[in-house]
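thread: overnight batch results

M.L. [08:02]
morning all. the overnight job finished for the chain we discussed friday. pasting input first so we're all looking at the same thing
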Amino acid sequence: MRGLPAHVHGEAVRKALVEARPAGASLAQLCRSTRRTPSQVWTGIKFLRRVP
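M.L. [08:03]
and the structure it wrote out:
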């Protein structure tokens, strides 16, 4: 079984970062707030960096 696509993780990370603004969020905080693994959070961040 394959995991979720990067854009799904990216959207969850984006929402968590918008809620944490302007202070930002650490990797651990993003993992807790999105209920994703560190690997999935990094996948989401990488996706967001590529999106214009």
